[in-house]
Amino acid sequence: MNLEQCYKAMDGDYEEAKRRLRADRLIVKFLRKFADDPSFSRFEAAIAAHDDKAAFLALHTIKGVAQNLSMTALYQKADTLCELFRFGWSDEGAAKADELKTEYERVMTAIERHVGYEA
């Protein structure tokens, strides 16, 4: 699978990522860094602990990285949840956590297939 296929599999925008980072090797480098980032597991732990501040911080990180790497679908889900947790605990946001997990897993699968990376 090439990077363009990887981005298609994650419902992202390869051309935008290429404009931003300018080289496939940099895209791969930052995809690997994303795969190592603990923000998603922190988000899950925050939901389990009912910790709105930790949930917001984790979501904000996921949102920013997803936007910078042009992971469109993941960015959109994280952005929606981030806004729900911006001012405190959100039962609606907690209920939508599985939607973010689905997108996150899709991105991770695409990264694993493309760069041969396993978290």
Keywords:
119 residues; elongated; single chain; mainly alpha
Order of helices and strands: HHHHHHHH
Instruction: Note the main sheet.
Output: none
Low-confidence stretches: none
Helix content: over 70%
Number of strands: 0
Question: How many helix segments?
Answer: 8
Using the alpha-carbon principal axes, give the shape.
elongated
Radius of gyration based on Cα positions: 14 Å
**Whole-number average pLDDT?**
95
What percent strand? under 5%
Structural class: mainly alpha
N/C terminus separation: 18 Å
Report on the structure:
By secondary structure, this protein is an all-alpha fold. It is built from eight helices and no strands. The longest helix is centred in the last third of the chain and has 19 residues, at 97-115. The chain is elongated. The mean pLDDT is 95.
